[in-house]
Amino acid sequence: MKKLLIILVVLALSVGTVFAAGTVVGSKHDLRGTGGGTATNAALIEVCVSCHTPHQATAANKQDPLWNHTGTATTGFGVYSSVTMNASPANIGGSAMGSQSVSMLCMSCHDGTVSVISMYNPPNSGNSAAATTITGRINVSGFIVSNANIGTDMTDDHPVNFTYDAALVTSDGGLQPVASVSAYLIGGQVQCASCHDVHDPTNVPFLRLNNTGSALCLVCHIK
Ligand code: HEC
Ligand code: HEC
Ligand code: HEC
Ligand code: HEC
Predict the structure, then answer these.
(1) Which one of 29, 132, 186 would you pick to mutate in the ligand 2 pocket, going by the greatest count of ligand atoms within 8 A of its CB?
(2) 124-to-53, 61, 71 alpha-carbon distances in Å
């Protein structure tokens, strides 16, 4: 019995290692001048620093993961609504920087109004002031101009920034129970990171799950 248990534990550990293969290094979120997926900061040799800093993270964002990227000035993103919606999403930029939703971190690059290389605490190891353009992807100001620019209007996007709880499951009638979805919730809520893993490009585009057969959608929706 003990032996079997040890074998099972070893198996579980090795399976874990196999699936934890994805890394932000070399992905489109790697903005280094050489070797990166979006080579737009000519002097940059570090990867994490575009988004995080070990010291002097922006005070306004201190509850977020040591955030280092310049925030967007956009506040009124609007909210998706429809006659069949049961949840009540909140505007992701509705409150002062620092108390708003974690999805705002993504929008500091993805609303297309801030340079992707603009940081609060630039690295000492090297940093360009001017962004290198990439035709059809990054413009001269460092803004995203590909279809990854999802804009400043969230009324036409899958709703984010609302609580997924038992009451919502009951009122909707077509949602999976909270227990089977909880691994995809961020503080009990649906946010960008419910569907995306910003650090893992394995399932393009940075999806938390391979969406073949719409498997990701079916994590939450019974359809
Ligand atoms: C393009 C931006 C970006 C880059 C580059 C990036 N991160 Fe993150 N990271 C985020 C965002 C956004 C979050 C917030 C939570 C989430 O969405 O997963 C986060 C969360 C985290 C967290 C806390 C939550 C967790 O998943 O454990 C850690 C730790 C972290 N990042 C470490 C790193 C390290 C180490 C690197 C470099 C090897 C890195 N990140 C590169 C954007 C980035
Ligand atoms: C530091 C800026 C920055 C932040 C912060 C950031 N991204 Fe990105 N993201 C980029 C850039 C640059 C690209 C590449 C755009 C292009 O080349 O078309 C990209 C591409 C993507 C893509 C498309 C990937 C593909 O394979 O086509 C997705 C999806 C994405 N990001 C999701 C997110 C999510 C979700 C968050 C927050 C959790 C986030 N990003 C935070 C800069 C950022
Ligand atoms: C309910 C799941 C879900 C949520 C929530 C979500 N996305 Fe996505 N996102 C997807 C899927 C699935 C795709 C791929 C779509 C495709 O291939 O047609 C995608 C594609 C993208 C792309 C690539 C460009 C494009 O339009 O295909 C970007 C950038 C992106 N998402 C950013 C974000 C950001 C930022 C947020 C939060 C504001 C967010 N996503 C919230 C599921 C989601
Ligand atoms: C993390 C859980 C989760 C994932 C993953 C997810 N959704 Fe959703 N989605 C929700 C919730 C919760 C709502 C709000 C339902 C409501 O209030 O009626 C919603 C709303 C929607 C709506 C709008 C419903 C309406 O009544 O207007 C559509 C359509 C939708 N999702 C499709 C998708 C698709 C397609 C995917 C996969 C790309 C997906 N969802 C992935 C949780 C999720």
Answers:
(1) 29
(2) 11, 22, 21
Task: Please give the number of the atom of ligand 3 that sits closest to the Cα of 194.
Answer: 5
Nearest C-alpha neighbor of 44 from the set 106, 99, 124: 124
pLDDT digits (tens, 9 = 90+) for 167-205: 999 999 999 999 999 999 998 999 999 999 999 999 999
Q: Which atom of ligand 2 is nearest to the CA of 206?
A: 29
Ligand 1 proximity of 199 Cβ (cutoff 6 Å): yes
Q: Which tokens hold the place of 107?
A: 């929008």
For residue 163, the model assigns a pLDDT of 96
Rounded to whole angstroms, the Cα distance separating 172 from 87 reads 8
CA of 27 to the centre of ligand 3 (A): 16
pLDDT tens digits along 85-123: 999 999 988 555 555 678 989 998 999 999 999 999 999
d(CA 57, CA 66): 5
Cα-flanking dihedrals φ and ψ of residue 141, to 5°? -85, -5
Rg of the chain over Cα atoms, rounded to whole angstroms, equals: 19
Q: Where are the alpha helices (DSSP H) in 45-190?
A: 103-110, 166-172, 178-181
CA of 195 to the centre of ligand 1 (A): 15
